Amino acid sequence: MKILLTGFEPFGGEEVNPSWQAVLKAAKKIDFAEISTVCLPVEYYKSVDAAIKAVNDFCPDAVLLTGQAGGRTCVSFENAAVNIADSDTGDNAGKILHTVNCQGGPDRLFSTLPIKETVDAVNKGGFPSYISHNAGRFVCNHVFYGVLKYVSDKKLDIIVGFAHVPFIPAQTVNKPEKPSMSLENIADSLVAALEVLK
Ligand code: PCA
């Protein structure tokens, strides 16, 4: 089995993005699949193109896209992505979008990762986790939608899921009210999640 794992570069003034760090750490721990890792730019459209290129280059059986969701308490699995970009925050190229139907296609596309089993597996591994019904309206949702649409349009037999990960402790030193989880625990949560694909 081949699994493509993606994370994102830092954004929003952060020095790191725990999604990318956790993906690198998780990749080293997985012995049940061949893994490819890609760090995506936090840019509308360019991120989708980079993810699709990685899908075509590696031809995975499954793709787990990951991104940072500062303020969340643990690794959460997104149920769906919507065809809307709507954030006052600019992407890393400064682009601000308030756009409905920015990628063509249906209003909403659903994760094809078995998210209930995935959350159960992470819980069994000893970590909290939950299904999220809000992937946001920024670049993470945009990439999730773009990859789901590509795989659906091309009728590819590829599972596509999205995991949002919390801050790591070093990111919350100056915002102690925000929750965090160690990189090790985030990576172990991702590994436990992917074991459902075995
Ligand atoms: N999180 C942002 C974009 C990149 C990332 O890691 C989001 O949730 O949209």
Short précis:
The chain is built from 5 helices and 10 strands; from the N terminus they run E-H-E-H-E-E-E-E-E-E-H-E-H-E-H. It is of the alpha/beta class and 198 residues long. Strand 1, helix 1 and strand 2 (34-40) form a beta-alpha-beta unit.
Element-by-element helix/strand order: EHEHEEEEEEHEHEH
Bound molecules: pyroglutamic acid
Name the strands of the widest sheet in spatial order. 2-1-3-10-4-9
Helicity range: 25-40%
General shape:
globular
The overall number of domains is 1
Overview of this protein structure:
The chain is built from 5 helices and 10 strands, in the order E-H-E-H-E-E-E-E-E-E-H-E-H-E-H. With 198 residues, it is α/β, with parallel strands linked by helices. It has one domain: 3-Layer(aba) Sandwich (Aminopeptidase), CATH 3.40.630.20. The strands form 3 sheets. Strands 2-1-3-10-4-9 form a 6-stranded mixed beta sheet, sandwiched between helices. It has a two-stranded antiparallel ribbon with strand order 5-8. The structure holds pyroglutamic acid (PCA). Pyroglutamic acid binds at residues 8, 11, 17, 19, 42, 67-69, 136, 138-140.
